[in-house]
Fold:
Amino acid sequence: MTAPSTSWPYPRWIAHRGAGKLAPENTMSAFRLGAAHGWRMFECDAKLSSDGVPFLLHDATLERTTNGRGTGSDLTLGEIAQLDAGSWHSRAYAGEALPTLEALARWCLANHFFLNVEIKPTPGQEAETGRVVAELMNRIWPADAVQPFFTSFKPEALQAAKLAAPHIPRGLLVDKLAADGADFQIAQDLGCVAMVFNHALWDAARVAQVHGLGMRCISYTVNDEWAVQRLLDLGTDGIISDRVDLFSAAA
Structure:
């Protein structure tokens, strides 16, 4: 099997939204819990407030994971800071806040953790979100440290991030492959170092194809032991998982 030529400084195991489902996703409590289980790399979702500050939220809307209503990006950062992002999960996390991306990044830096930022723009804000997220990371992340890893389903967001901070590595997220193979060309055009697939998409031929293009093979969201073993046997390079309690990130 052809090995990719690009260096890969990141751990194999990446904690999904901090600690998966064990704590309210994309909150500092979740990232601290993931770290308490020994995980060293964390995935988060970043979008923009109405005043242009990157904050953590997966959905475009607030209802599922906060006590707010409507579109998250319609609120200012001050309004976002007042939301309760923990009660939906359990009483233990009542009053948990939605952090800014900068707060999470500085926590990762202070603890020598690795960060995977999924650029998750509110529809219509793809390029702006990619640019602002990249400019933030370019400003606060030391040049001599292992850089954060940007991923997105939106090529426009990755292209804007590439223009703003070309030295920060990128990966294209893919849930369903285009029949014409366009995803592979898009990843190459964006200068991606990895393709991040729904784990069910990987087979030996696709692993060989991506490795042959000089990129790494990463999978989301992998929560079962049989699926992990299949991906290890295929020779994939990274696994994003909710199960920080089941898998050892030291493996």
